[in-house]
């Protein structure tokens, strides 16, 4: 297939502001290239394709990025700024759609969803978040009635947020596991990775690390500076070791050195890439039982689950996770989250949409 993959319009690919969507795009493109498809990626100006996606063509568009939906109120109106990147990207898609067999949107935005019945080339959407906006919920429900096979989700917890016309297509996610080195000898430290923003609950991981008397290595882009400062002030100095946003190679090396990864979503996390990335390095995960991570973490097999928002329960889960065989974590990731498995599920979905 000739596939046009459209990245989220919140910012350039490679900079971290796209969160998990950036990794999903990398896996999806690398996996589909391996299966012999011709891929073009459309993304913001300044984007970089990951090394394993160099066989794809990259189209870049200038423009003002979209505000991310997760930081707006649920009843916020759809916002498209002057000089919009989103509008520029979708103008390109409409102008050049005839060159492709299928269009694949990874952005959580109203405009591309609304366009679904209006393109001449089939337009598919891999929805990247749960419910955060009334306007998006209503449109996803509408497209689910008119074009059910054009929507796919990562997990059942995520899809459960929406009023869908039938059973959702669940694709999980995939990772280029060769890029994650198994590490059997961790240091005396815990890890936490993700965008540093309130919906990720870093303050609870910090409190749990303080209670356990272990340092917490924090990896990720600071999206909300005042929130990061509040978290830093909530525990004794030396508890948090801030690493900033790490490129994939540095991220996996840092993850591997951790005894346990703490995962503390305060929202219905759609998937939870960092959970699988830690497992791939052999790191067990202690997570709140909420959203995608609750489907990924299997108590006693690759980690431990705690009642959501309960720091004491998280501390206990972390202690249980420390007893898990690290090789079992890696094996779980290989069995459930390979690049090849994900790419073949995506391929099967897209092939079903060809006209
Ligand atoms: N990430 C990264 N460098 C960092 C911290 C995180 O590249 O220092 C990536 C990580 O690999 C993961 C993504 O950021 O793929 C976060 O995805 P996740 O699904 O965990 O959360 P989201 O940001 O989508 O809510």
Question: How do the helices and strands line up, and which of them pair or pack?
Answer:
Blueprint (H helix, E strand, L loop, with lengths): L1 E5 L13 H15 L3 E7 L12 E5 L23 H12 L5 E4 L4 H6 L7 E4 L7 H13 L4 E2 L3 H4 L30 E4 L8 H11 L3 E4 L5 H9 L6 E5 L3 H9 L3 E4 L9 H8 L4 E4 L2 H6 L6 E4 L4 H12 L3 H11 L2 H13 L4
Parallel strand pairs: 1-2, 1-4, 2-3, 4-5, 5-6, 7-8, 7-10, 8-9, 10-11, 11-12
Helix pairs in contact: 1-13, 6-11, 9-12
Bound molecules: uridine-5'-diphosphate.
Uridine-5'-diphosphate binds next to helix 1, helix 8 and helix 9.
Walk me through this protein's architecture:
The protein has 355 residues and is an alpha/beta fold. It has two domains: 2-174 and 338-352, Rossmann fold (3-Layer(aba) Sandwich); 177-336, Rossmann fold (3-Layer(aba) Sandwich). The protein is 36% helix and 15% strand. It contains 13 helices and twelve strands. The strands form two sheets. A six-stranded parallel sheet has the order 3-2-1-4-5-6. A six-stranded parallel sheet has the order 9-8-7-10-11-12, sandwiched between helices. Helix 1 (20-34) crosses helix 13. The longest helix is centred in the N-terminal third of the chain and has 15 residues, at 20-34. Uridine-5'-diphosphate is lined by residues 16, 19-20, 23, 193-195, 219-220, 245-246, 248, 251, 271-274, 277.
Question: Can you summarize this structure?
Answer:
With 355 residues, this protein is an alpha/beta fold.
């Amino acid at each position: 297939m000739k596939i046009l993959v459209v990245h989220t319009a919140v910012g350039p690919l490679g900079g971290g502001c796209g969160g998990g969507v950036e990794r999903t795009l990398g896996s999806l493109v690398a996996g589909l290239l391996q299966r012999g498809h011709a891929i073009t990626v459309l993304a913001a100006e300044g984007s970089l394709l990951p090394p394993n996606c160099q066989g794809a063509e990259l189209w870049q568009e200038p423009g003002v990025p979209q505000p991310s939906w997760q930081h707006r109120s649920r009843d916020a109106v759809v916002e498209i700024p002057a000089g919009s990147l989103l509008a520029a990207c979708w103008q390109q898609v409409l102008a050049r759609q005839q060159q492709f067999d299928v269009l694949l949107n990874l952005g959580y935005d109203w405009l591309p969803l609304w366009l679904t019945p209006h393109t001449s080339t089939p337009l598919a959407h891999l929805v990247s978040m749960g419910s955060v906006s009334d306007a998006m919920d209503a449109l996803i429900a509408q497209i689910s009635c008119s074009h059910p096979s054009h929507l796919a989700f990562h997990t059942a917890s995520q899809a459960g947020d929406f009023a869908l016309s039938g059973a959702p297509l669940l694709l999980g996610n995939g990772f280029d596991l060769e890029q994650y080195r198994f590490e059997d000898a961790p240091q005396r430290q815990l890890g936490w990775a993700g965008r540093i923003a309130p919906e990720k609950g870093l303050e609870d991981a910090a409190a749990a690390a303080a209670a356990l008397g272990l340092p917490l290595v924090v990896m990720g882009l600071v999206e909300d500076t005042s929130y990061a400062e509040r978290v830093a002030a909530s525990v004794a100095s030396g508890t948090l070791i801030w690493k900033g946003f790490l490129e994939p190679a540095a991220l996996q090396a840092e993850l591997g050195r951790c005894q346990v990864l703490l995962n503390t979503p305060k929202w219905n996390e759609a998937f939870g890439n960092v959970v699988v990335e830690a497992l791939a390095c052999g790191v067990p995960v202690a997570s709140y039982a909420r959203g995608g991570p609750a489907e990924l973490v299997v108590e006693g097999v690759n980690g431990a689950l705690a009642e959501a928002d309960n720091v004491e329960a998280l501390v206990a889960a972390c202690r249980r996770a420390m007893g898990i065989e690290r090789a079992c974590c890696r094996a779980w990731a290989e069995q459930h989250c390979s690049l090849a498995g994900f790419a073949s599920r995506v391929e099967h979905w897209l092939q079903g949409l060809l006209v």
